[in-house]
Design a protein that fits this description.
The complex is a heterotrimer of chains A (about 210), B (about 260) and C (about 220). Chain A is an alpha/beta fold and about 210 residues long. Helices cover about 30% and strands about 25% of the residues of chain A. Chain A is built from six helices and eight strands. Chain A has helices at about 40-50, 80-90, 100-105, 120-135, 150-165, 200-205; strands spanning about 5-10, 15-25, 30-35, 55-60, 65-70, 135-140, 170, 180-185. Chain B is mostly helical and about 260 residues long. In chain B, helix 4 (about 70-95) packs antiparallel against helix 5 and helix 4 (about 70-95) crosses helix 7 (about 165-195). The termini of chain B are far apart. In chain C, about 80% of the residues lie in helices and about 0% in strands. Classes of the chains: A alpha/beta (about 210), B mainly alpha (about 260), C mainly alpha (about 220). Chains B and C meet through helix 6 and helix 7 of B and helix 7, helix 8 and helix 9 of C.
Chain lengths: ~210, ~260, ~220
Amino acid sequence: MELLVDNLTVTRGGLPVLEGVTFDMRPGQVVMLRGPNGSGKTTLLRTLAGLQPPMEGSVSVEPEAIAYGAHADGLKSTLSVAENLQFWASVYGTHDIAPALAAFNLNGLTTRAAGNLSAGQKRRLGLARLLVTGREIWLLDEPTVSLDVASVGLFADAVRAHVGQGGSALIATHIDMGLEAREVDVTPFRADPNGSPRVATAFDEAFT
Amino acid sequence: MSETHRTKQARDRWNWFWEWANPVKFMSLSGKALPWVAAICALTLIPGLVWGFFFTPAAENFGSSVKIIYVHVPTAMMAINIWVMMLVASLIWIVRRHHVSALAAKAAALIGVTMTLAALITGAVWGEPMWGTYWAWDPRLTSFLILFLFYLGYMALWGAIDNPDTAADLTAVLCIVGSAFALLSRYAVNFWNQGLHQGASLSMDQQENVSDVYWQPLVLTLVGTSALFVLLLLIRTRTEVRKRRTHALETRERMADV
Amino acid sequence: MIALLLRDMRLGVRSGGGFGLGLAFFLIVIVLVPFGVGPDSEILARIAPGILWVGALLACLLSLDRIFQLDYEDGTLDLLATAPIPMEGAVAVKALAHWLVTGLPLTLSAPIFATLLNLESPGHIWVFLSLLIGTPALSMIGAFGAALTVGLKRGGLLLSLLVLPLYIPTLIFGAEAATRGAAGLENATPLALMAGITAGSIALLPFAASAAIRVNLR
């Protein structure tokens, strides 16, 4: 499934942060989303995932085809690793968590409560969730935070396997994880707070 | 095709109304309207109150305490009407996303809660000589107390949320759900009191006892209080629009700094 | 959906929150009342249905903010919003889980605690029945309030201020049904009205609550 983003304007706190974002991502591709801190990468990913409405523009893919990996992993500290993962597998209707556990080297930790994991182990569990969603397009926000070199390697392997099967991944990150990827820099799309906005909205018309 | 055409026509016919929803237009229109509303308010409320307080005879059975109806009845009426107005404004905000509508609802809440409190206090002051008690769990009194609580919750939610659009959305949802529950409470309270005491022991329904002498100034104060509400609403909504504009400018500045 | 229900119940029981605390709070309220109004068993028996209802309502309130707050903080709510279950369904399921770990234990323990207030025999059954019909509405209305305040840092107090007025009709009909039943009077009307509120809340409030959550996630 091809992700086409056309002339998208995304907002934070009611004001546009990125304007006219246009790019595409075909099956089998990995796209790295680049841009300095606070430039609107997270806002863009949340908009693509359907968590917030765009102010203008269109996204070709329904949120139902997208698996979103946020900063936070959504883990429950009192549930075990297997229970956490099993929950998401049931929600997405996939049920088999063994491959996901193996891919992120979590087999030895299945009965450990998620609260007792190290930061890197938590992250690996959060990323393992992506494998049980069974969705084609991954949107990942800083997936490698608190991962060691070996774990980044595991993650890169998982992404490679995913795109090898016709999936695709849009990854906002600052590091190079050795993946063959295209880059999209959001800097040219940044909205100028002082310039006249490209999109005339009720908000701008009214309150500036 | 005809469907869209029809909606467009309908929209055109109401354009004069929706133009108010444009904040710039609203500011200029309301600025012009303010002196007129103030004049109507002054010309009805002041004569009504003076007439009611000083030029009506003291009632035989109630004494001069009856004159408090010139504050009590209008504020009680407005307490309910303002909530209804907030409900309409909330619906307009949810359906059409007009910022002025949401801000008007916010502005109305403070006036509404003041009216409710005034109605409750004047009711208590009046109740003492009438029934020998400041407070009774009469269905109507209780309903107003509950309405007061709803106003407090609504205002607290506005105050707690930083993002103005989020606050507008959530308070609108609360106002709609709250209205349903306020209505339910009204019936529940009727049922509850009737259930405990056989028959309504204290009725505040004085209308049949109010003769023309009292009625005419009351009409004046009713019109005057409505005008007072519109006046205060316009002033407060203008303030809210300005605050919103300040907030937008500040946000813009913060983003320019990044 | 069932996975979500099981997970929420497991969390509710395991993290020692709602389940045990709510019940203990309920017991303490019931114990405190006689200290406040005196040990006269006749007075206690007369006010028992009302006290039990107010106590259950407050105990229910105690754990409301946990319905969405924890999931919001650790990011689960974001992930749930992008998961293939409708948010309305998730809200309803979470309210159900809250009821199963809070409302149901309160309902089951109320007839036992009623003994402490000298409530006579038919009263037990009516307190139990009225709570059984009414507490689901408390959980659902509470979930709506929790959805409104989920984005706030310290929403707990505000949540009470928003939810308690919404509880008034349920409380009135519930306590009325229990009181009338205990006095041997006809109480089908308040029971039916309360069942109506419960049914209406369960049917409509998930939509309002999920709208509020989507606004808060924006």
